[in-house]
Please model this.
Amino acid sequence: NAGVTQTPKFRILKIGQSMTLQCAQDMNHNYMYWYRQDPGMGLKLIYYSVGAGITDKGEVPNGYNVSRSTTEDFPLRLELAAPSQTSVYFCASSTLAGSSYNEQFFGPGTRLTVL
Amino acid sequence: AQSVTQLDSQVPVFEEAPVELRCNYSSSVSVYLFWYVQYPNQGLQLLLKYLSGSTLVESINGFEAEFNKSQTSFHLRKPSVHISDTAEYFCAVRTGGSYIPTFGRGTSLIVHP
Model:
């Protein structure tokens, strides 16, 4: 299993440009998440999905969009990049383990700079 | 709403010394507790978890954490740290019925030779 994969690893955008951060998992997990990580601020949830076709906003959704057409893929779209979106972005997935919610598996991250 | 407090943003320690990273949460319902580790320029990976059963849980690399319900804490400990333990450590809490965890802000463990 490759686990959770993210592309690209690094990206520099100009203000106003758009891009899609790709995320895929091969563990057949129902739940997928997008976080951003800023220094000293921990992880902030952007969007999450509980299954194909179902997405919902997290704590900081403004400026982002997501889709979940398959169980495996959960891309994050930035439509009009702004310097405030400079961050490291992590995708994660998880599933149920019996009656307990299991841990999250994280991708390696995408480091995005908006200039 | 649940919250997680990691009281120390940075913990410097010398190699082979013991360390404790503190985590407190606020929740009145059943919880599932996790510690994640993030090495430089990498994603987070699970270090250990408490779902039910024994309140003391251990990782394969010598860390342990104890779930203390009365004090709503889940502190992480290691009796003797190595240089390779230098990393960011995150505590996370899920409440029963929720698939969205709440993360603490992280504690940077810096091990000096």
